[in-house]
Amino acid sequence: MSANRYLPSVLITGCSSGHGEALAKLFVKNGYPTYATARRIESIEHLKKIGCETLQIDVTSYDSIDKAVKTIEEKHSSVGILINNAAIGIMGAMETIPLAEVKRLYETNVFGLLAMTQAVLPKMRKAGKGRIVNIGSSGGEFTTPGGGVYQATKYALTSMNDAMRAELEPFGIYVSMVQPGAIASKFVLNGTVLGMEEKGPYQELMAGIYKVASEAVKEGAPGTWTPEQVAKVTYKAATKKKPRARYRPGFVAKSLIYTRLILPYRMWDRMFVNNLIKQGKKVLKNKS
């Protein structure tokens, strides 16, 4: 499919599967010059066959970011639309999560996203127009047991997104954030739930987290959106003339965000801990 040269170029990170893959397909279908990227270039070869340009970007490698952005700028003067989608998920209790894993989460979800954005901004600002859509999470508005560090990275993104939005709009650059709930994808399977295999004080909790999270991302699960459904929301945020500041696709995402606002802290804590430990006990009992 040939791209429409009058449409802005689109750069999407994390396209090997799930939401990023669905989004790349949607943009190229609509005629946009679409640059799909991933840490492993071979994981996105199939997107080249449908008309996407493919580039290697590991957001923790600033050299790979600069190289890819320059490739696009040489052809299009500037990146027209940046979708910051790449992220990793690691769940673990605050007492036991290794600091190396904490650093890995921040390197990808926070520092990598910021480096990606900084790389495209000079030319985008010079062009006097552009779009940036940051893919956050409903977990950037609340915290659950076992998700303290992962959700902290999404809280950080929420803050950075708000600063970007205010700072960049005077230059004609619109910034939006998409905060989905559960998406039927490989994200949970590709992530890590720590402490569920080893006997310890958090084993039941972490086993429960894995069970609930795994069930939540199955296609057809109540309240779970498909990658294609979320991609339509992200596409709208990236292409609408006057995009909203935040998009929260799905009833579950909205309900959890607003429930957290009205529930007392300790009631919220008990609601999650009691259910997760109950689920974890069932998992461990079935394994024994």
CATH topology-level fold name: Rossmann fold
Q: What proportion of the residues form beta strands (DSSP E)?
A: 5-15%
The main sheet comes to: 7 strands, parallel
- Distance between the first and last residues' Cα: 54 Å
How many separate structural domains?
1
The CATH superfamily is known as NAD(P)-binding Rossmann-like Domain
**Total of helices:** 10
Helix content class: 40-55%
General form: globular
Q: Decide which structural class fits the backbone.
A: alpha/beta
SSE series: EHEHEHEEHEHEHEHHEHH
Low-confidence stretches: none
Describe, in plain words, how this protein is organized in 3D.
This protein has 288 residues and is of the alpha/beta class. It has a single domain (10-287), classed as Rossmann fold, CATH 3.40.50. Helices cover 51% and strands 12% of the residues. Helix 5 (148-168) links the parallel strand 6 (130-135) and strand 7 (173-178). Helix 4 runs parallel beside helix 5 (148-168) and helix 7 (203-216) packs across helix 10.
Please give a quick description of this structure.
The protein is about 50% helix and about 10% strand.
What does the secondary structure layout of this molecule look like, with pairings?
Blueprint: E1 10-12, H1 18-29, E2 34-38, H2 45-48, E3 53-56, H3 62-76, E4 81-84, E5 90-91, H4 99-127, E6 130-135, H5 148-168, E7 173-178, H6 187-190, E8 192-193, H7 203-216, H8 227-239, E9 246-247, H9 251-262, H10 265-287
Parallel strand pairs: 1-2, 1-4, 2-3, 4-6, 5-8, 6-7, 7-9
